[in-house]
Amino acid sequence: MSRNPIPSPQRKPQWLKTRLPVSASFGQVRALLEGHKLHTVCEEAQCPNRWECFSRSTATFLIMGSRCTRNCRFCAVEQGPEDGPDPEEPSRVAQVAADLGLSHVVLTSVTRDDLPDGGASCFAQALASLRSALPGASLEVLVPDFQGSLDALKAVLTSGPDVLNHNLETVSRLYHEVRPQAAYERSLELLAQSKRLAPGIATKSGLMLGLGETEAETERALRDLLACGVDIVTLGQYLQPTRDHLPVERYLTPREFDLWRARAESMGFAAAVSGPFVRSSYQAKEAFGLWLHRKSTP
C-alpha cells in the first residue's frame, strides 16, 4: 500500500477539516439527553462525528457514569468514577431510545474495574429495558474487556444483543503505551469466546490508525481479529484529544482508508467501515445490515 506525502502531525490535513452540520435535531437530541441525565460516548470521548449523528437524531449511549477506572492514553473520557451505577439509568436509556425512534441502538460504557462484575449486569439490565421499549430494534453493545471474566461476558451475551463489539484499538507492539491497563491477547480472547459462546451474534472490533503502527502490524491485527471470528471491523484515524494524550504519528489519506477497507473485505470480514472519521458506532446500523445480508446469502 503506497504512502502519499503526509502533512505534519501538528497540523491537520485538509481532509480532516469539515463543516459542522447544523439542524434542529442536534439541539433536540442534546436537550433530550440532558433532560434524562444521560451520557454519550459521542460527547465524553469527543467523537468527531457527534454533530453529524446528533443531527440525524442518533447517539451512542454511555452507561455507568462518565468517568473511567482506566487511563488509556488515547481517550478523552475522564478517569476516576465517583459513584456506583444508577439503577434507574437502564429505563431512562430505553425511554430516550424510544423517543428518538431508533431502529438500531448502540450501547457502551466506561470501564468499571471497581465493580465486581465489571458492569456486566448493567449491560444486561439496559438490554432488557431496550428490548421491552423497542422490541423491533437491533441492539449493539460495545463492551470493555471485563478483565477477562468469562462469567461477565456470558451475562452480556445471554441478554441477547445482536452485535457484540469490543475494540482492539491498536496493534500488539503499541499496547503497553496506548492501553497500559489492557492486554492484546485478552481482548482477542474475549472476541473469540463471544463467537464460541454465541455464534449467532455478530462480533465486531475496531482499530485506530496513525499511532505509529506499520502496515504489516495493521494487517496482522486484522488477521488476528479474523481468526477470532470477528465479522465486522472498523478502521479510523486517531486524533489527539488534548496535548496530554498521545500525539498523532501520521495522518492516513482517505485513499489509504479506502484501500484498508478493500483489504479487510478481501480477507473475509462481512463488513468493513474505514475512513478518517470512522469510529466504532459510525454507520453501525449499515454494517450490521451487511452482516445480516452476508449471513443469509448462501
CATH architecture: Alpha-Beta Barrel
- The CATH class name reads Alpha Beta
CATH topology: TIM Barrel
Could you describe the largest sheet, including whether it forms a barrel? Answer: 8 strands, mixed
Describe the structure in brief.
By secondary structure, the protein is of the alpha/beta class. The chain is 38% helix and 14% strand.
List keywords for this structure.
alpha/beta, 11 helices, 10 strands, TIM Barrel, globular
Describe, in plain words, how this protein is organized in 3D.
- The two termini are 32 Å apart.
- The chain is of the alpha/beta class and 298 residues long.
- The chain has helices spanning 24-35, 41-44, 50-55, 89-100, 120-133, 150-157, 175-178, 184-197, 215-227, 254-267, 284-296; strands spanning 39-40, 60-63, 67-68, 78-79, 104-109, 138-142, 163-165, 202-209, 232-237, 271-275.
- It has one domain (20-296): Alpha-Beta Barrel (TIM Barrel), CATH 3.20.20.70.
- Mean pLDDT is 88; it is low at 2-8.
SSE blueprint and pairings:
Layout: H1 24-35, E1 39-40, H2 41-44, H3 50-55, E2 60-63, E3 67-68, E4 78-79, H4 89-100, E5 104-109, H5 120-133, E6 138-142, H6 150-157, E7 163-165, H7 175-178, H8 184-197, E8 202-209, H9 215-227, E9 232-237, H10 254-267, E10 271-275, H11 284-296
Parallel strand pairs: 2-5, 3-4, 5-6, 6-7, 7-8, 8-9, 9-10
Antiparallel strand pairs: 1-2
Helix pairs in contact: 4-5, 5-6, 6-8
